[in-house]
Automatic annotation (TrEMBL):
Protein name: Glutathione S-transferase family protein
A Pfam family per the record: GST_C
Database matches in CDD domains: GST_N_4
Gene3D superfamilies (alphabetical): 1.20.1050.10, Glutaredoxin
Highest taxon listed in the record's lineage: Bacteria
Annotated ranges, domain GST C-terminal: 84-196
Organism for this UniProt entry: Brevundimonas goettingensis
Domain (GST N-terminal): residue spans on this chain: 1-82
Taxonomic lineage of the native organism: Bacteria, Pseudomonadati, Pseudomonadota, Alphaproteobacteria, Caulobacterales
Amino acid sequence: MLTLYGDIRSGNCLKVKWLLDWLGRDYRWIEVDILTGGSRTPEFTAMNTAGQVPTLVFADGRPLAQSNAILLTLAESTSLIPVDDYDRAVMLEWLFWEQYSHEPYVAVARFQRAYLGKTAEEIEARLMERGHGALARMEARLSEPGREWLAGTRVSLADLALVAYTRVAHEGGFDLSGYPALRGWIGRVEAAFGIV
């Protein structure tokens, strides 16, 4: 059986959980409270030296970290990875971009507002500027004629990875009312994966 160590408040952890649920895989969830240092204990860092969640442990005891690496491993040979080489490359592009240009701003602003209790005035202006830049890039992509998904013509891992923090961006102070294509996409991705 698979074991998934994660914090239920984390979009990076939730996207792995959502994929496991969508795949119908049998797994055990172990809650790790990152706010109290749960991923920094000697026991946890012995398993994952980066001290981060999510961490997936396979039945043979081997651990795998980094949410998008876990997604790619679990979704191998499924419809969530496009067959077309170019569409697959575009999916990968969005996965890399998510961790470098979206999550560090949208998710960090959310964490600071929702979990550290910072006010809007206390959030670094650069976080908000770059977060809005990321959301605007997604809006532009999803506003292309006939475009429903980020990569290819059907839902992919790119959509799953990016919906995790985009759907709760408002908790970080990002008003999504000016992003109609993005809001429609969130609904489609949630429906595709049964996310409530």
